Amino acid sequence: MVSVKSNLLSLVVFVTGVVVCGALIGVSTAPGPWFDTLVKPPFNPPAWVFGPVWTTLYILIGIAGWRIWHLDRSSTAMKLWFAQMFLNFAWSPLFFGAHRLDLALGVILLMLAAIFGFILTSWNRDRISAVLFLPYAAWVSFATVLNASLLYLNP
């Protein structure tokens, strides 16, 4: 029973940690007047979409990280999980805080590479973790195009 409680506690820590860190970064670097003045592409989603999408993705990311953590804490997949988290949390301060669309684009490209690397390295070991990252890969791919478009439209 201790093992089940320990596993449940570590799942809660993973998911809560990812969601709370993401929310704190989101709140501290919320889009403001600067972002409102940017020329946006026609496919730019309304602002209300981002909160629910990121909350859902952060839950999936936390679960995937927890699963890989329990399989092998020193695996390449786990290292890529931490790398993509670092890059994920670095993107908003660069984009919304520093207004550096160019540097943010570089970070999101690296993040996308780490996400796809995680999917590939975890696919044979824990397909569920890999599949949990597929919506994240799709959203970050879209966000990369959006970031690049904003950079292009606002030189």
Automatic annotation (TrEMBL):
It is found in: Membrane. Its main location: membrane. GO terms for biological process: tetrapyrrole metabolic process. It holds the Pfam family TspO_MBR. One of its GO terms (cellular component) is membrane. Keywords: Membrane, Transmembrane, Transmembrane helix. This is Tryptophan-rich sensory protein. Gene3D superfamilies: TspO/MBR protein.
